[in-house]
Amino acid sequence: MDSEKVFLSLGSNIGDKEQNLKEANRRISADSRIRIVKVGTPLVTAALEVVDQPDFLNQIILINTDLDPHELLNVLLEIENAMGRVRTRDKGPRLIDIDILAYKSIKMHEKGLHLPHHSLYTRPFIIDLLSELQESDLVSKFSN
After folding, report:
1. Most buried pick, 3, 40, 64, 127, via CB within 10 A?
2. Which segments constitute the 7,8-dihydro-6-hydroxymethylpterin-pyrophosphokinase domain (predicted)?
3. Domain ranges within the chain, ordered by starting residue
4. How is domain 5-143 classified at the CATH fold level?
């Protein structure tokens, strides 16, 4: 498989949020099958779905990878687990959350993997973060 353009969303709202994002980036880039192309500026955002929790520090990164979406998801879940993410409640506080926002122009809806990720449409700050990376037209690519 050729190297594909993939957007990831990183978020943290417990512990040292800035350090958590840096460590996630370090671990992502440590995988020889993944190359970080662009790194967005972290943005503080309020929790949207479960609001009784601390604000998030969110960031978008653009990567190139030859991993297929399922392989990439497994790598990202391993990174979350290795960093100490514990899932105590759905959409609850988290040390690190790494989502695949978009993988090329693939549309896929399976248990545990939805491409593009719903946050492209439900989280307004995502558009701001994509604009910084000069990728704000990403949402329109999936509107059909």
Report:
1. 40
2. 90-101
3. 5-143
4. Alpha-Beta Plaits (3.30.70)
Could you tell me the CA-to-CA distances from 134 to 61, 127, 130, 131, 143 in Å, in that order? 12, 10, 6, 5, 18
The SS3 call for residue 64 is strand
Partners of residue 97 on adjacent β-strands: 11
pLDDT band at 144 (very low <50, low <70, confident <90, very high): very low
For residue 35, give the 3-state DSSP assignment: strand
What angle do the packed helices 69-82 and 17-30 form, to 10 degrees? 130
On the question of pLDDT at 1 being above 70, the answer is no
What tokens appear for 74 in the block? 């497994």
Distance CA 61, CA 92 (A): 22
